[in-house]
Amino acid sequence: MNSNPRIIFMGTPDFAVASLHALVENGFHIAVVVTAPDKQAGRGLRLMESAVKQYAVKKNIPVLQPDKLKDPEFLEQLKFYQAEVQVVVAFRMLPEIVWAMPPLGTINLHGSLLPQYRGAAPINRAIMNGETKTGVTTFKLKQEIDTGNILLLEEIPIGPNETAGELHDRMKEIGAGLVVRTIRGLLDGALQEKPQNIADPSTLKTAPKIFAADCEINWLDPVYKIYNQIRGLSPFPGAFTSFKNKTLKIFKARPEENNQAFKAGEMETDGRTWLRFSAADGYIYVEEIQLEGKKRLYTDDFLRGIRF
Question: Which pTM does this prediction carry?
Answer without folding.
Answer: 0.94
